[in-house]
Amino acid sequence: MVYCAKCGVEVEERLDQCPLCSFPIPDIDDFDETYEPKFPIPENILPEKLKEARNTIYYGITIVCIAVILILAAIAFTFNGYGIWLSYSISGIVALWVYVFFLLGYVKNMNFNLIGITLVTILLALRVDSLNYRLTWSVDLVVPLAITALLIFKMIYRLYHFFSPRKKSPIFIVSFSCLGLGIYSLLVDIIINRALNGILYASWSFIVLIAAVATSVLLLGLYYKLPDHIKEKLKRKFHL
Amino acid sequence: MGKKKNWYRIDNAGKIYPSIISNRASTVFRLSADMKERVNPISLQKAVEKAVEVYPYFHTHLKSGFFWYYFVGTKQRPIIEKERFYPCMFLDIRQKRKLPFRVLYFNRKISFEISHSVTDGMGGFIFFKCLLEHYLKEQGVEEIETLEKNNFSKEERNEQSEDAFVKYYKEDIPFIDASPKKAYHFPFKLNDLGEYHIITGEVDSNELYKLAKSYGTSVTKFMVALYFDAIQEYVMTLPIKKRKKLRPIVINMPVNLRGLYPSKTLRNFFISLTPHIDVRIGSYTFEELIKYVNYYVDAHVSKRHIDQYISRNVRNEKRWSLRIIPLFLKNLVMPYVYQFYGENSYTSGVSNLGVLRFPPAMEEHIKRFDVYPPPSKGNKLKITMLSYKGKTIITSGSVTQNRHIETILFRKLRKMGLTARIETND
Residue B254's closest CA among B116, B370, B55? Predict the structure, then answer.
C-alpha cells in the first residue's frame, strides 16, 4: 500500500508521483510483478486526422497548380506564343501555391508566417514588374506598402498583448485595428504620393486617421465606462 | 419479426445532443466492469449480439428528419473492439451506419460507451447489465439464470421506449421562472483535442455513509457540499483581483426521475437541479454548505416542483415556433443555445448513479464497476459516482491538465477520516 505524503490518498504502486498533486512517491522495492495495466496507452488519433485532412487538401491544390502550369506551357508550345502572358500566369500560380502553404498553417511561428506572406507578395510584384525590363511600381509601391502593412500588423498585435494581458476582450482587437488602419492609411497616402509625384505629402489620410483614432478611443472608453450589465448584454449579443 | 422498422423519436432531454456533438463534446459516457478473469472476446461478441435483441431500442441508427433527428432500428451487427483510445472518445452518430454505442474490452475490463442522446446512466446500466449477464452465460457460468425477463411483451416494449417526459407532462401548470445565470468557469487550459483524463477515488461505502450521516445528510448531498467546498477553497486561492469578478458557483445535479415517476423507460429521464453559492458574499463553512444543499435538494425534489420542470422542457419542445425550424438551421444554432442555457450556466456537475446491484451469481465475477462522465468543454471537469459491492467510486473526468480541484476534494475527504485509493488512466 503506497500513499501520497501530502494528500493522504492511497495510490497505485507503479507511479513515481502522486496523480493529484504530483508530489514524488518514493520507490519501494516490493513492486508487484503480476501488475496488469487497466488502460491501454492511448492513441490520440484526432490531431493526426486533422493533419491528414490538411495534407490531402494541399496535395490536391498542388496537383491542380502543376496541371494548370503544364497546360499553359503546352498552349504556348503548340501555338508558338511564348509571351509575357505566360510569365504572368505562371508567376501568379506559383505565388498562389506558396500563399496556400502559409494560409493552411504549415508554419507554426506567427512571425515567420507573416514575413513569409509579405515576402511572397514582394517577390510576386517584383517578378511581374520585371517583365517589362524596368522595375517601377513594384519598388515604388508594393515593397513599401507590404513592409508597412507587416509592421502595422505587428504593432497591433503587440499593442493587444501589452494592453490586455488579462482582459483579452475582442473589443481591444477592434479598437487597435481601427488605430492601425488609420496609421496605415496615412502611410499609404505618403507612399503613393512619393511614387507619383516624388514628394512627401498627405491629404485625405489625415481625415481617415482622425476618424479612426476617434473610433478607437471611443470604443476603449465605452468598454471601460459601460456598466457591467450592458457589457454582458453586448457580449451575449455579439459573442462569437 | 415484422418487416416494419421501429423508429423512435428522440426524447426531450436527448434532442439537443446530436446537434452539439463535436470533438470536444462527444456526449459519450462510459460504464465499465472489472471482471474476475481475462475477457474472452468471442463470448463478449456473442453477448452483445444477444443483448441488442433483448433491448432493440439501443440497436438503432440516427437519421435526419426534416425537423428533428430520430432513431430507426437496424440489423447491423455490433462489433466489439479492443480498447485503444482515450475513454469516451468522439462518436459521431450522425455518420451513416454508426451505432450509438460501443463495447470495448482490455485485459479484464469490459467497457460500454453510449451517446447521451439515446439514454442516461440508468438506461445505460440496464443494457450493460443485460450484456454482462449474457457474457457470463456464454462463459459457462452455471448459476446465471435469466433472472431478468428477456422476452418482453408489446406493452413492456412500449414502456421501455416511451418518452417519460411527455408521459408526465401536465399542460396547465405554470412555468418555472428559471433564467439561466452565468456561472463561474474554471480557468484551466484545455488539453489537446481528444485527450481525456480520468481520476477515480475508491472509498468504503459504509464509512462514507456514516460520515454523511454524521453531518445530517445523505451521501449525494454530502458529496455536492464537499464539491462546493473544494471549488470554494480553490477560488479563494486566486488573487484578489480575480476574486472580485467572480460569478456564482453552480453545480449541475442530475436527478433520476424513475423513482418519483414510475416508468420503465430506457431513455433519458432525469432533470438537472442547480444548487449554487455566491462566494462574493463571503465564504461558507462546510456546515453552512450542508445546510444549503439539504434545503435545496429537499425543496426541489418534490413532485410539485419537478412537474414544473417537466412542463417547461416539454412545452419548449412542443412550441410550434421551435418545431417548424428545419433541422439544418437547428444544427447551426444548437451548439450556442446549449452553451448558453446549458454549460454556461453551471460550473460543473455531480452525478450519482446510486447503489448498483447484480444478482449474487454475477457479483462474484464482477470485481468493480465504474462510470465516467462525458467530456465537457464548458465545464472542463465533471464528477460521477456509484457504489458497488461496498465500495463507492468517485470519478472525475477532466479535459485539462489541472488537478487542483480533485486534489483539494480528496484531501478534504482524508481530513475527515476517509482515505481514498486513487487510480488514473495515465
Answer: B116
Whether residue B115 contacts residue B93, with contact meaning beta carbons closer than 8 Å, is answered with yes
What 3-state class would DSSP assign to A171?
Answer: helix
Q: pLDDT digits over B278-311, tens only?
A: 888 888 999 999 999 999 999 988 888 888 888 8
By the 10 Å C-beta count (0-12 exposed, 13-18 middle, 19+ buried), B4 is classed as: exposed
A200 CB near a chain B CB, below 8 Å?
no
Give phi and psi for B308, each to the nearest 5.
-65, -40
Q: Do B410 and A11 touch (CB under 8 A)?
A: no
Strands (E), B171-265: 197-204, 249-256
Please check whether residue B124 is in contact with residue B31, taking contact to mean a CB–CB distance below 8 angstroms: yes
Q: Are strands B348-355 and B249-256 parallel, antiparallel or unpaired?
A: parallel
DSSP class of residue B189 equals P
Parallel/antiparallel/unpaired status of strands B197-204 and B60-64: unpaired
Beta bridge partners of A2: A11
Say what the ipTM of the complex is.
0.74
pLDDT tens sequence across A152-198? 988 888 888 777 656 667 778 888 889 999 999 999 999 888 888 88
- Judging by DSSP bridges, how do beta strands B109-115 and B101-106 pair with one another? antiparallel
Q: Which residues does chain B have within 8 Å of residue A4's beta carbon, measured at their own beta carbons?
A: 422
A10 - beta bridge partners? A3, B421
Q: How far apart are CA B264 and CA B269, in angstroms?
A: 10
In this complex, is the C-beta atom of A198 within 8 Å of any C-beta atom belonging to chain B? no
Separation of alpha carbons B368 and B389, rounded Å: 8
> Under 8 Å CB-to-CB from B164, ≥6 apart: which residues?
B11, B257, B258, B261, B263, B265, B267, B269
| All cell numbers assigned to A122 | 514582394
**Entry field: residues in chain B:** 426
Which of A36, A13, A11 has the alpha carbon at shortest distance from B37?
A36
C-alpha B300/C-alpha B220 separation (Å) is: 15
Q: Do A38 and B426 touch (CB under 8 A)?
A: no
Give B1's pLDDT tier (boundaries 50, 70, 90).
Answer: very low
- By the 8 A CB rule, do B346 and B183 touch? yes
A114 Cα distance to chain centroid: 7
pTM of the model: 0.71
Q: Which three cell numbers stand for residue B233?
A: 477553497
**What number of other Cβ atoms are within 10 A of residue B341's Cβ?**
14
Whether A53 and chain B come into contact, CB under 8 Å, resolves to: no
Identify which of B62-66, B253-257, B327-331, B384-388 has the greatest average pLDDT.
Answer: B384-388
Residue B138 parent element (H or E): helix B121-138
A228 forms bridges with which residues in the sheet?
A: none
